[in-house]
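Batch 3, record 17
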Amino acid sequence: MLAGLEGMASGLEEMLSSVQPALLHPIDAVKLLEAATCVEQRAGALKTLLAARAAEAGEWRRLGYRSPEEWLAQQSGCGWGQAAGTLNASEKLADLPALDDAVRKGELSAPKLLELAKTATPDNAKKLVESSKTQSYRQVKRACQTERARARSEDQDEARNRRIHDERSLRTWTDAEGWHCEIRNTPAAGARIEAAVFAAADAIFKEAYAAGRRESMAAYRVDALERLVCGGGAGVDTTVVIRVDESRLRDAGGTCETTTTGPVPASEAIGAILAGAFVKVVAHDGTEVTRVAHHGRHVPAEVRTAILERDGHRCVRPDCGSATNLELHHYRMDHAQGGPVAVWNLCCLCRHCHHLVTHGGHRLEGGPGNWTWIPPPP
Ligand SMILES: [Zn+2]
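Prediction for the assembled complex:
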């Protein structure tokens, strides 16, 4: 097979050195283009079939590459992402006969194949491959995105977040166009980084504006990143806002997302609250922002009023209902653990009942409208 391929390569070289596009009849050029595409597609398919097995040889390590992806990218003269896609496709072919079959028949262009390999599972491969044959690359890409979105919603949030965390990466490379950097991380981590960079960029923009300089925000963000990483970034406000439905914090449905980078698991929001200062949690019903969580001991007057109103200015313990000596109790996340001062985390208890919960082993469960009081076991 090697000799065959080498023969084809030298045949192609010969054609390349002799072809005179300007002398061709345009219709002939069309036919040649079609035939060349056919060769390209099949050569790509062959590469995909071989890639995973070739990576096993460990040749990449001997040659001093850090990963099979880096080696393949160098070999093929393509980017890291494309090399990773090819290896991923190569590994998946064994489990996806429908895709394997289409690859062997040369029915898929390389970009289509990479999309399909990212998306196909034993359940959907046949359907996706079938429809991809008549679709443009754009259509295939959209179909794959839809399919992946469907899989994601079935996929548990937590599991997905853990996977993204496990796969987090920062890669840099330098070429004639300069230094490049690509980062992948969970939306929550991304939001923290973005908040810091964007805030610093804003400060840099103001400095530049005052000095009469005008450059793009994208340029200022790079300066901001450099300043933050290499020092001189102090004093920047890097608050991250996580918007979360109250229902979500109680393990019921609802959204939980950063305002800029997308969905995060509820545990991440709670963890962020517990971790302290950099997060502001905004509870909302649907699209309307209704309550802001603050940190620290101080209960803003409007939050206090909202809770008193909701709880009818009475102790929420069902068999108490006292209207005197009312105190605010952090019922969902303990104040000692950093539970925030927020309407969704506070309720009214009389001083006596509050003491029983805090020091007497009594428990208050449920929420507004369905409180349950559980005394300690006898
Ligand atoms: Zn009470």
